[in-house]
Design goal:
It catalyses: GTP + H2O = GDP + phosphate + H(+). By secondary structure, the protein is of the alpha/beta class. The protein has 28 helices and 18 strands. 48% of the residues lie in helices and 12% in strands. Helix 6 links the parallel strand 7 and strand 8. The chain is elongated, with a radius of gyration of 43 Å. It starts with a helix and ends with a helix.
Length: 879
């Protein structure tokens, strides 16, 4: 194919990619080359687009009319009609219906309250009156909310426009009305933010016929005021009176042509002004721009294809109607689910989280942190225990009183305490069940493509979990009944009545400790209970705020270090006499707690009576509170409890025998409950693991598949509509990319393009004077011969030798990048109206005039040797 035919395929190629990816459910960011139209409200953007098409088809009115981006694809064809991407295979020949459909589709997404959305509407227009071109019409920049619009509508529109014009592959068509100050142009201002060098910006000046008398935009159009590397093009749109009078667009374009030819400020550049010239320029520049971005686009397409190739090949090999395929897929999905569930419980999952606990780690935390904390919270109220014992002793002795400690009181108190363990035990199972259900739900994500199968699997497993939960709770209730059935006072860890006497308790404890070896004593003292990061909140100590330290809690002390290596010790705080207090009011939104001495006169750390600590979250704080309970650091009591304790002490103080009996029973109860609690902490996780968690694992391996086999496999393996569309979209995307790469390879091999215009420099703008017409050298190389008048236009005397014209860089004629001292440029390849120059070995270079064949309509006329048959057939095969 010739270079020009290869270039002509580029815009349709991008259109095909744009349509394909816009309708896909799979997100894809290819940054396709395109032209985005920006401008303030009522700047004339919509009128320019309608002039391109030659039809009135865009919504009009006051306020914000364009409320969704409109991707307008103009395609040169023999018949005139329009079609929307969301209404495939429906042709619109009445362009009033096109306008109504744009309004209806806009309201469908944004509502009728003038809201906006960044979801584009794709419209394709076929017509013999257009050149191949793709533009994105964006909402006009506004500053004041209208109707029910949000107060930040200006920022919303601005963000949407930036979203479309920020990509490097987007050309910006900045539309500015001539009757406003160019320095305050919203379009040029926002374009400069993302394109400071002006390499991607094309200027359009509208409403030239509405300027004040005696003023004109000549210097703007000659690229002198706000230079752009791609220059400016002036257009004249229909006025509101023309629109109300139903003036035909073809007649309006003829009036536009007459305006430029007759205006003294613009007639010397009339052949480079107007809608027809703008359309030809945009066609040329978009084509060249696409050609320049082909290497990057090709690399991105190849990368995306490689990522899709494996999935697409798998889809092609599937035969959904084959019963064996559905059976194999069912087995595969269930086995994968079972493996994922077991790995999540056992901790062998491939995707291991480093941010939080998950799966089996959360269940382990319930067993060994939350459950012990719940049990310790039941037993911390020592004074309440003494009060209960005192009442039990008195009630057992009745009216007679007694000198000896009744063992019935011990039995009553222990039974009551054992009964209280049942509630946190069952709560532990509830938490495990909740975590298991959460793990099941998370593992079912891989079955999301088959919603019926996922629902059935989740229903079956949750049903089994509930059955196992009932068995587990029954067994734990039986465990409580076992404890209540027989009080084993002969247990080796039970202190017995002799050692429970307050007078003998201290001496017995000392003897027991003395019989231990020194090493065993040190190990008991230095046993680590808990360690982790906490923040110190004492501002004076820390000189300006909290700081994190590594804390280590042992059975005798709380030590903090500079870091977890535990080399640089900061302080050792003995635990004797300490109490804890939780502060529900978060300091800097972090849960915190405090340690203080039971004697209010004692400073626990330097001059501070309390040490304020903060954790990262509530769970961490509760873990530390539970650990402190285990080493005997109990919470402080409320004033009411303290008053009740004082009253009980007063009552018991009047009866020393009762007080001694209470202490004896308390020691016995405490000793026995330690045995029971230890048993509970050991057996509850084991019973729960065996009857609940392991049972669910076995169910997944042996029972789940037979249950699913008994159901309708066709119904279970029915894909969701989303999955069907996803697979179809992936195949479509893959085929489109493959086709695009083939075209790109052909275009890259056979086409030649014009380079990007050089930067604007001050020496391009020589001051205008009355020279003798001699040629002036510009910064871009040798001066070019002046452009003659277009066909059918009057000759303008003297305009060809104007220094201003020689100095001006024509926006649509990008000069070649050549050194200043280079000789005459070599002849270029013969091109059509989409390119910039024609080659003439005898006459040298002359500027190609896109308007040479224009005579009142926008029908493009090719000036080259005609299309190559092979290229035309390749283009036709695509569309």
């Amino acid at each position: 194919m010739s270079g020009n035919q290869g270039m002509q395929m580029l815009i349709p190629l991008v259109n095909k990619l744009q349509d394909a990816f816009a309708s896909l459910s799979v997100p894809l960011n290819l940054d396709l080359p395109q032209i985005a139209v920006v401008g303030s409200q009522s700047a004339g953007k919509s009128s320019v687009l309608e002039n391109f098409v030659g039809r009135d088809f865009l919504p009009r009115g006051s306020g914000i009319v364009t409320r969704r981006p409109l991707i307008l694809q103009l395609i040169h064809g023999p018949t005139e009609y329009a079609e929307f991407l969301h209404l495939k295979n429906k042709h619109f020949t009445n362009f009033d219906d096109v306008r109504r459909e744009i309004e209806a589709e806009t309201d469908r997404v944004t509502g009728k309250n003038k809201g906006i959305s960044n979801i584009p509407i794709n419209l394709r227009v076929y017509s013999p009156q257009v050149l191949n071109l793709t533009l994105i019409d964006l909402p006009g920049l506004t500053k004041v909310p209208v109707g029910d619009q949000p107060h930040d509508i200006e920022q919303q529109i601005r963000s949407m426009i930036l979203e479309f014009i920020e990509p490097e592959n987007t050309l910006i068509l900045a539309v500015t009305p001539a009757n406003s100050d160019l320095a305050n142009s919203d379009a040029l201002k926002i374009a400069k933010e993302v394109d400071p060098t002006g390499i991607r910006t094309i200027g359009v000046v509208t409403k030239l016929d509405l300027m004040d008398a005696g003023t004109d935009a000549r210097e703007v159009l000659e690229n002198r005021v706000f230079p752009l590397r791609r220059g400016y093009v002036g257009v004249v749109n229909r006025s509101q009176r023309d629109i109300d009078g139903r003036k035909d667009i073809q007649a309006a374009m003829a009036s536009e042509r007459k305006f430029f030819l007759s205006h003294p400020a613009y007639r010397h550049m009339a052949d480079r002004m107007g809608t027809g010239y703008l359309q030809a320029t945009l066609n040329q520049q978009l084509t060249n721009h696409i050609r320049d971005t082909l290497p990057t686009l090709r690399n991105r397409l190849q990368t995306q294809m490689l990522s899709l190739e494996k999935d697409v090949e798998a889809f092609k090999s599937l035969r959904p109607d084959d019963p064996s395929y559905k059976t194999k897929a069912l087995i595969h999905l269930v086995n994968n689910f079972s493996e994922k569930f077991v790995n999540a419980i056992d901790g062998h999952s491939g995707a291991i989280s480093v941010d939080s606990l998950s799966g089996g780690a959360e269940i382990n935390r319930i067993f060994h942190e939350r459950f012990p904390l719940d049990l310790f919270e039941i037993q911390i109220d020592e004074k309440a225990l003494r009060r209960e014992i005192a009442y039990a002793i008195r009630n057992v002795q009745g009216i007679r009183g007694g000198l000896f400690t009744p063992d019935q009181a011990f039995d009553v108190i222990v039974r009551d305490r054992i009964g209280r363990l049942l509630s946190p035990t069952l709560a532990c199972v509830d938490r495990v069940v909740t975590k298991l259900s959460g793990i099941v739900h998370s593992c079912l994500e891989q079955m999301s493509s088959y919603p019926r199968l996922a629902d059935e699997v989740e229903r079956a497993i949750n049903s089994r979990i509930r059955e196992s939960e009932v068995k587990t709770k029954d067994q734990l209730r039986s465990l409580t009944d076992y404890q209540l059935a027989y009080m084993n006072t002969n247990h080796e860890d039970f202190i017995g009545f002799n050692n429970a006497d307050p007078q003998n308790a201290n001496q017995s404890a000392k003897q027991k400790l003395g019989n231990q070896s020194p090493g065993r004593q040190r190990r008991a003292v230095n046993t680590v209970i808990c360690s982790g990061w906490l923040a110190l909140l004492n501002e004076k100590v820390l000189r300006g705020g909290s700081r994190y330290y590594w804390f280590v809690l042992t059975t005798e002390s709380l030590t903090w270090y500079r870091n977890e290596e535990e080399r640089e010790k900061k302080f050792v705080l003995p635990l004797e006499g300490l109490k804890q207090r939780a502060d529900d009011t978060a300091f800097l939104r972090r849960p915190n707690f405090s340690l203080f001495h039971s004697d209010p006169k004692v400073n626990i750390y330097k001059e501070f009576k309390a040490l304020d600590l903060a954790a990262d979250n509530v769970n961490t704080r509760d873990n530390w509170k539970g650990a402190l309970l285990r080493v005997g650091v109990f919470p402080e009591k409320s004033k009411q409890v303290q008053e009740e304790e004082a009253e009980d002490d007063l009552n018991q103080g009047n009866n020393p025998i009762l007080k001694r009996q209470v202490e004896t029973i308390r020691n016995l109860v405490q000793s026995y409950m330690k045995i029971v609690t230890k048993t509970q902490l050991d057996l509850v996780p084991k019973i729960t693991m065996h009857l609940l968690i392991d049972d669910v694992k076995k169910y997944l391996k042996s029972d789940l598949l037979p249950i699913l086999y008994a159901l309708d496999a066709n119904r279970l393996m029915e894909e969701s509509p989303e999955e069907k569309r996803r697979k179809q979209d992936l195949v479509t995307m893959y085929n489109t990319m493959k086709e695009a790469l083939n075209i790109i390879a052909d275009v890259t091999t056979h086409t030649i393009t014009t380079p990007v215009p050089p930067p604007i420099t001050d020496d391009l703008f020589n001051s205008e004077g009355k020279g003798d017409g001699s040629s002036q050298r510009s910064a871009t190389g040798p001066s070019r011969p002046s452009v003659g008048p277009s066909r059918g236009s009057p000759s303008i005397s003297g305009s060809g030798n104007s220094p201003a014209l020689q100095a001006r860089v024509a926006p649509s004629v990008p000069p070649t990048s050549r050194p200043l001292n280079a000789g005459p440029p070599p002849p270029s390849v013969s091109v059509s109206p989409g390119d910039s120059y024609e080659s003439n070995n005898n006459a040298g270079l002359k500027m190609f005039d896109p308007m040479a064949n224009y005579s009142g309509n926008t029908t493009p006329t090719a000036t080259n040797n005609g299309p190559v048959a092979g290229g035309a057939r390749a283009l036709a095969s695509l569309f």
